Amino acid sequence: MPENGVSGLLEKNKTKAIAVVGAQWGDEGKGKVVDFMASSFDYVARYAGGHNAGHTVIFNRHRYVLQLIPSGILRPEKRAVIGPGTVVDPAALVAELENLKKSGIEVRGRLFLSNRAHLIFPYHREMDRAAESARGEAKIGTTSRGIGPAYEDKMARRGIRVSELLEPQRFEEKLARVVAEKNAISSAAYGHPLETAGLLEQYLELAAHIRGLVADTAVLLNDALDQGQSVLVEGAQGTMLDIDHGTYPYVTSSSATSGGAATGLGIPPTRIVGVVGVTKAYTTRVGSGPFPTEMPDLDAKEVRERGNEFGAVTGRPRRCGWLDLAVLRYAKMLNGIDSLVVTKLDVFDEQAEIKICTGYLHKGQKLHEIPPDVETLSQVEPEYRTLPGWKKPTQGIRDVKELPTAARDYLNFISDQLQVEIGMISTGPERDATIIPRGTKLASWL
Ligand code: GDP
Ligand code: IMO
Ligand code: MG
């Protein structure tokens, strides 16, 4: 038995990796939640997606929108990781770094980019746009950031990774090979070759800016966990946008659910000891695809305006609907959600009545599962319960006891139906407009 065997074990038990995931179709307020929780963790790590994400954090009257860099970077002493499961557009990353610098946020020495993350190239964006226009009416409504085509190349085993960007000679050869292949495809499919002039020089120039960030982030995170440091995992997108479990094909191209955190970071699933699911008090979705609880235009317009529901990245108006417990129940199961965060409660402050979907009917029959095909999901009829609104301001409330009774009833209804605790309630976009009820699992992780 090694001398410090037992105490070493105890120390390990204290270390934690907790994942924060979107329980709906993205934009649930993950950025705000991660920023809040980050104060209790050593590392914050992104595991999937790219700059299709837009995570908003507001404090000291300043609004930050993070796309690829984890929200934890805004806390001066924290370390942030962009993991191997992400796709990285170096131009977008450098622009994001410059924006942070302008706001006085220094990242050197505490931001780490995985050497295994795949690169997004301008031809991925071109292909994203071309594929969308070819789909016509059936378009997905992507963010046009090249996310799908970059993950396609990764899975087809012809992607180019961050580590290769750092070796100019190898990068040049590989890029030439990939571009020749892409040009053949583009010429056949769209009648013209790709725009690739100056690409090599541009990427080598970008490489100089990111070289200092590159690391084996799986080693970094596992070492940190072994040494008793804690990791907050920042999900991007949401459960219903997950490539396997979402409303396929109206999804993104990565594993947004908590399972993706283990592969997307290279930490064992057994090290993730808790999962936080984030939901709005209602539902939104950007882009196309089925949305059973979508509100009629006028109601949606009101919620959109009160909730400022316009994309953080693309500025697109978000589609708005009632809270969907069928979706949240599924999200709880898929992610193993231990604690639910409800954001944007204040958006309902003037609502007279609030509808909440408890399940679906299809052709008059109760559905016990979310149908796998979008055709059936578009035909389901939500079953609603109507709860009274509170018609009182909740904005900025920080103590659960100060919430109006009807607001507490609404939250209790959600918690009872899903059989999950509510570990955090957000009552405004600012960092401190947050309630942490006592005695929850989430409270014990902070
Ligand atoms: P994310 O992608 O999940 O990080 O979410 P986004 O940042 O894309 O969208 C959430 C939006 O809601 C942002 O504009 C936030 O500033 C805002 N927000 C977050 N929590 C609250 C809240 O409790 N109340 C209100 N009114 N806005 C919130
Ligand atoms: P965050 O992390 C909301 C949606 C797009 C589109 C679909 C596919 O801010 O919650 P993509 O460009 O990924 O191929 O687009 O996925 N989408 C998001 N919607 N929030 C996001 O991220 C999203 N990331 C992608 O609107 O419908
Ligand atoms: Mg967002």
Main sheet characteristics? 10 strands, mixed
The amount of beta strand, in percent, is: 15-25%
Task: Specify the helix fraction band.
Answer: 25-40%
Cross-sheet strand order for the largest sheet: 9-7-5-2-10-1-11-15-19-20
Q: Helix/strand/pairing class, anyone?
A: alpha/beta
Q: What is the mean predicted local confidence, pLDDT?
A: 94
Rg computed from alpha carbons, rounded to a whole number of angstroms: 22 Å
Number of helices: 15
Number of strand segments: 20
**What is the CA-CA span between the terminal residues?**
33 Å
Low-confidence stretches: 1-13
Sum up the overall morphology in one term.
Answer: globular
Ligands present: guanosine-5'-diphosphate, 6-O-phosphoryl inosine monophosphate, magnesium ion
SSE blueprint and pairings:
Blueprint: H1 5-14, E1 17-22, H2 30-37, E2 43-46, E3 55-59, E4 62-66, E5 79-82, E6 87-88, H3 90-102, E7 111-114, E8 118-119, H4 122-135, H5 147-155, H6 162-165, H7 168-190, H8 199-210, E9 214-215, H9 217-226, E10 231-234, H10 259-265, E11 272-280, E12 283-285, H11 297-306, E13 319-321, E14 323-324, H12 325-335, E15 339-343, E16 353-362, E17 365-367, H13 374-379, E18 381-388, H14 405-418, E19 421-426, E20 434-435, H15 441-445
Parallel strand pairs: 1-10, 1-11, 2-5, 2-10, 5-7, 6-8, 7-9, 11-15, 14-16, 15-19
Antiparallel strand pairs: 3-4, 12-13, 16-17, 16-18, 19-20
Helix pairs in contact: 3-8, 4-5
Residues 22, 25-27, 52-55, 140-143, 145, 147-148, 236-238, 241, 252-253, 286-287 line the site of 6-O-phosphoryl inosine monophosphate.
